Amino acid sequence: MDIIKRLAADLSIRETQAEAAVKLIDEGNTIPFIARYRKEVTGSLNDEVLRNLDERLKYLRNLEDKKASVISTIEELGQLTPELRKKIEDAETLVAVDDLYAPYRPKRRTRAMIAKEKGLAPLAEIILKQEITEPLVNVAAGFISDKEGLEVATAEDAISGARDIIAEDIADRAELRSALRKAIFEKGFISSKEKDSEKDEKKVYEGYYDYEERISKIPGHRVLALNRGEAEKIITVKVESPDEQLIAVLKNYLVKNNKFTRDALEEAIEDSYKRLLLPSITRDIRTELTEKAEDGAIKLFGSNLEQLLMAAPIEGKTVLGWDPAYRTGCKLCVVDPTGKVLHTQVIFPTPPQSKIAESKEILKSIIKKYKVDIISLGNGTASRESEQVIAELIKEIGGGLSYIIVNEAGASVYSASKLATEEFPNFDVGQRSSASMARRLQDPLAELVKIDPKAIGVGQYQHDCDQKKLEESLGGVVEDCVNRVGVDLNTASASLLGYVSGINKPLAKSIVAYREENGRFTGRRELLKVPKLGPKAYEQCAGFLRVRGGKEPLDFTGVHPESYDVAKKLIERLGYSKDDLLNGGLKGIGSKIKDYKSLASELGCGKETLKDIVKELEKPGRDPRSDMPAPILKSDVLTIEDLKEGMELKGTVRNITDFGVFVDIGVHQDGLVHISQLSDKFIKHPLEAVHVGDIVNVRILSVDIKKQRIGLTMKKLP
Hey, CA dihedral for 614, 619, 623, 627, is it positive or negative? Predict the structure, then answer.
């Protein structure tokens, strides 16, 4: 297989692009580095395409290794023919290779093996040829044997053994397995029945107690739901196939008009289908459905995570983080605009203590002393009661303060982690959590990178997916987001630095240790003094790290050090100076360039690189998250009881699934906009309409207070 050609075809890119990308990956370059600083080489492939290419490249190389291994094994057995070699070499999937290898794969002792040991393989050949001109029982009589341990007592026993050999032979034929798999996939159904509904206390799987759907039509989220319900022993799941029809097709294909062999061969075909082919193909189909569903769920989780990480930060504000609780009290933490902790406190406005008046006085004192701008309230236990206190407090102090409810997902994981212990050695888990509540409002990306992406809670069935594949995919999403935004070298935590292109976790800790020992970095070049950070790591990471107020103004931009000479020539040529760059950027520089191609050639760089340099010089240190919608701030409380059908509200998209979108409308219970209610035009997936973090207008369709369910629509709304 020509891997480059295959990659180009699979990803709809040019072969030259695929070849260049593969070469860069093999040289040890990271995806963010290639996407940002090697656009001329790859033809401007973005990070998403490059990650897909990298994943596909690994699969195809694994496929080629598998082919080589299978060919070698069959060759050692002395059974490799030129035709079989070509079939294996032309196989396009691992499943196809497995089908071709099936007859030669070491098996546990089967009925066919026992029959062969008894010398019945020639009789099986006779039946398969279908050329005899006398009753089969007469021919089989010649295979009767009384050899010790290998007895064949009667002609009927001989025919039975031959049938076992034929059944296994049919089951091992790759072309038959492939054709049957395709037929069952297209014509079969997935069905489920109730097994033990008492285990399903919340009736999560009620829709699957008596359910059936075509295999070819079933969406991924239902596959994963069926798998989970089956694993929890609440339902049984079955692949329903048109067995009689397929057996008839097999018979028609394999059986000739020979009355002496027809019955034995037809019995062998039925046995092969029911005992060997169907169970194996059913497993293959369930596995394929699960893998596709997992890939879809992981992709959706990645998209949701990206939007959450790229949420607009709230800068320049003093924030009071509030981790709500009942018995142990609500933990408060005030952080200044830089994220530095100024004060921590525990108050008890919630049951059982319910010290509301006392808590309000403490809050008023803290808000006045530290000039708090926003309260960041976690949405966990006791959040509703806490919100009521906050809303009343804002009215009592006459406004000037707002609050926002933030998703607590992952906060408890972070609070109990080794990282949180190192960051806040003198805090308990509640104090750490409240600090996290405040900081994730100020800079969602910097705070959320401290948490395992799987624990952030914007996925769908993430616990049912291949965890290694999920971890790799989400790690790539975080890496792309971190590098797209850029990282302040002098303030970034080791957690954040660990996602920068070319920097692993040990190296991130080395950078922080060097910074603590030697003080602020004065420029990017100083990174080369960090132990174990060599030229290759420097090349990969330098462009994504920012140094504010250093010796070199370009160190605060996304211009890579390898392009500094070009940037300086450009600044000089257009009549600017370093001071202009320091004073907020070279506004309007792009309008002065009429021909990027010729200027790039003159400056000794590529056209795309020149465009990126101009963009960085116009807005040095620009944060791409500033283009994202700002979070909705609140000053009064709304409950599910306040909702009425037809009411129009603004909300924030919190999570996206294959079947719809969950929107936070400020009542502690996210409402569901089903995919059918997302748009006035037909859409195949919710991501065509919205992303996590979007601020949307919704109308209340239904409210079920008992089940705490809210139905929403976005149809006929702006």
Answer: negative
pTM, entire model: 0.84
Distance CA 618, CA 610 (A): 12
Q: State the Cα–Cα distance between residues 316 and 87, nearest whole angstrom.
A: 65
Contacts of 696 (CB under 8 A, 6+ apart): 650, 651, 652, 653, 663, 690, 714
Cα–Cα distance between 527 and 506 in angstroms, integer? 15
DSSP 3-state of 645: coil
pLDDT band at 707 (very low <50, low <70, confident <90, very high): confident
Amino acid letter for position 436: S
Tell me the C-alpha to C-alpha distance, in Å, between residue 578 and each of 486, 522, 542, 602, 617.
21, 17, 20, 21, 10
Enter the tokens of residue 7. 């990659």
Maximum CA extent, the chain: 106
The letter for the amino acid at 219 is P
Closest by CA to 626, choosing from 475, 445, 450, 449, is 445
Give CB contacts under 8 A, 24+ apart, made by 153-159: 158/120, 158/123, 159/123, 159/127, 159/264
Per-residue pLDDT reduced to its tens digit, 261-275? 999 999 999 999 999
Query: Tell me: the pLDDT tens digits for 27-86?
Result: 999 999 999 999 999 999 999 999 999 999 999 999 999 999 999 999 999 999 999 999
